[in-house]
Design a protein that fits this description.
Distance between the termini: 55 Å
Shape: elongated
Structural class: alpha+beta
Helix content: 40-55%
Order of helices and strands: HHHHEEEEE
Strand content: 15-25%
Number of helices: 4
């Protein structure tokens, strides 16, 4: 065989081995990074222990929300202008809910509430459900415990209220720890 052909084959073999090793290293680094990110808590995540103080805080919050919902409200002026057709509507109103208050309720009262429903039980593998409210986005999350360890699973959702009054939560991203996964893939 010609020396040039042998030299070309050796160079090709060396380059293919180098390319294969580079790809293997890149895949290994990506895998290690994904594993590390999946074990890390999101920056907004807080640890909520169901202490008596947190339970009391959640109960006060629940009472405040119920009081706000049942508060007497004026008629919606548009409803009056429309000749009071259809079911009664109140004037628009809003309420401010802090992350800490909602998360305290989710961590302490939600599992008890679900356990109190016929045929439902809070899964023992889930703990510390919580939320973080951001502009146009609500981050919801839960700690999932398995035999192989625990992970924080979160979703970024965009709440939408349609004309018929229905509430929709459009998911943009799901996160396993800090590892983002497009919701469309799940």
């Amino acid at each position: 065989m010609d020396r040039r052909v042998l030299r070309f084959r050796r160079k090709l073999k060396t380059r293919l081995i180098a390319a294969g090793l580079t790809i293997a290293v890149a895949i290994t680094i990506a895998g290690l990074l994904a594993a590390s990110l999946s074990r890390a808590a999101p920056s907004w995540w807080r640890v909520y222990r169901p202490t008596p103080a947190l339970r009391e805080h959640a109960a006060r919050f629940e009472n405040a929300v119920v009081t706000q919902i049942y508060r007497r409200r004026d008629d919606d002026p548009r409803w009056r202008l429309e000749g009071r057709n259809g079911p009664w509507r109140s004037a628009p109103w809003s309420v401010f809910i802090r992350d800490e208050d909602a998360s305290a309720w989710l961590a302490t009262r939600l599992p008890e509430w679900i356990d109190g429903q016929d045929g439902l039980a809070w899964p023992i593998s889930l703990s510390q459900p919580q939320v973080a409210f951001r502009r146009d986005i609500v981050r919801i999350g839960v700690l999932i415990r398995t035999d192989r360890g625990s992970r924080i699973l979160t979703a970024a959702v965009k709440p939408e209220i349609h004309d018929d009054g229905s509430l929709w939560l459009r998911s943009r991203w799901i996160h396993i720890g800090r590892l983002p996964v497009p919701a469309a893939l799940i």
